[in-house]
Amino acid sequence: MPFHELIAEAYDRLRKRVRRTELIYSHHYAERLGVPLFFKCENLQRTGSFKIRGALNFMTAQTKEALKHGVITASAGNHAQGVAFSADLLGVKATIYMPEITPPQKVQATRDYGADIVLTGKNFDESCEAALEAQRATGALFVHPFDDELVMAGQGTIALEILEQLPDVQNLLVPVGGGGLIAGMAAAVRERAPHVRIIGVESTAAPSMSASFAAGAPCEAPVKVTLADGIAVKRPGRLTVPIIRACVDEVVKVEEEEIAQAIVSLLERTKLLVEGAGAVPLAAVLHNRVRGLKGKTVCLLSGGNIDVKTIALVVERGMLAAGRYLKLRIELDDLPGALATLAADIAATRANISLINHERRSETIALGKTSVALELETRGHEHRAEVIAHLRGRGYALVTE
């Protein structure tokens, strides 16, 4: 069966089983960027990401005989929840291999769906090797996170929804890891709306798809720790890369700080919570990674499964990168009123002190001096520079952190 027909079949199969997620127009970003910008909110999908589509399509297409020994997979979190949910729905045993660094929220959410969890490996690829070894020993059915036609077809149903919700869409930005999501979506779009420009977005910490896209075949690339853990794949799929090469216009990369800023911006401006992988399309738009962007543009927010500790880290990094957070260390004379004078000088800049630590008992501090560590809230890079210049102008010896 032609691949685009598999996607149409998946659409019919999943229609009543998954959420038809909202396509939201953003007035703020449209006015800011001069481009009509829409968000396809798979972060609001059941299990918190698009992955349920591929997992459920794969498993509901199987016979009872194929599922009798259960299913097994490897995942950084979102595919794990999709498989666990689908297995619970179908009454099938599920075993999920996850990297040791998987956020606890994703591990617990997967376990809550009744799956057995095995934490092993430093990254997805090492977990996947362990899962395949276990699959050969147990006879369980392996559900690949991205390199399977049924899985890709399930993800492609997102594109069919977008084309119904916004028939005149002109640009589509999609997160890229192993390639299952963009391969399914791009194949669906090329069949029904070949004029649409399709852009894949990956993290510079996991650049395997851009390397593979350029080479025309799957290539390995080293994976570093990234906020976009959901797309941190060392080697993309054997099946996905040819489809992406044929159907996708380009693949671009974004930096970690840009991902953090996009997460914070979405929280503030749209009240939408997304994980790192889900924020990369907006990061690419905000930081001009895509040239010549014109017409109605859709950014796919692929998931919203982010744990609380990561949110706190991301907010701090995002504010730092946006110039809205300033860390200073200032040396003061150890005299009464010195700290009060410093506070008044900071107040004159309209910066807000969020944290202060006054230290005088340390071998590293000269006699007659004190050290003050400050965290200030600022309004942006220009205001940040004004605060530093004002304090230096007042004679303070300071170091920024």
What does this structure look like?
It is a single chain. The protein has 401 residues and is an alpha/beta fold. It has 3 domains: 3-49 and 148-320, Rossmann fold (3-Layer(aba) Sandwich), CATH 3.40.50; 51-142, Rossmann fold (3-Layer(aba) Sandwich), CATH 3.40.50.1100; 323-400, ACT domain (Alpha-Beta Plaits, 2-Layer Sandwich), CATH 3.30.70. Helices cover 44% and strands 19% of the residues. Helix 3 (51-60) packs across helix 7 (149-165). The longest helix has 17 residues, at 149-165. The termini are far apart.
Please sum up the structure shown.
This protein is an alpha/beta fold and 401 residues long. The protein has 15 helices and 14 strands.
Key descriptive features of the protein:
4-stranded parallel β-sheet; Alpha-Beta Plaits; alpha/beta; 401 residues; 14 strands
Determine the number of helices (DSSP H or I, runs of at least 4 residues): 15
CATH topology of the largest domain: Rossmann fold
What gyration radius follows from the Cα positions, in whole Å?
24 Å
What general form does the structure show?
elongated
Distance between the termini: 59 Å
Quickly give the structural class.
Answer: alpha/beta
What is the strand tally?
14
Order of helices and strands: HEHEHEHEHEHEHEHEHHEHHEHEHEEHE
Strand content: 15-25%
Main pleated sheet: 6 strands, mixed
Strand numbers in spatial order across the main sheet: 1-2-10-7-8-9
Report the helical percentage: 40-55%
CATH class label of the largest domain: Alpha Beta
Number of domains: 3
Any guess at the CATH architecture of the largest domain?
3-Layer(aba) Sandwich
Give the low-confidence spans.
none
Average pLDDT metric: 93
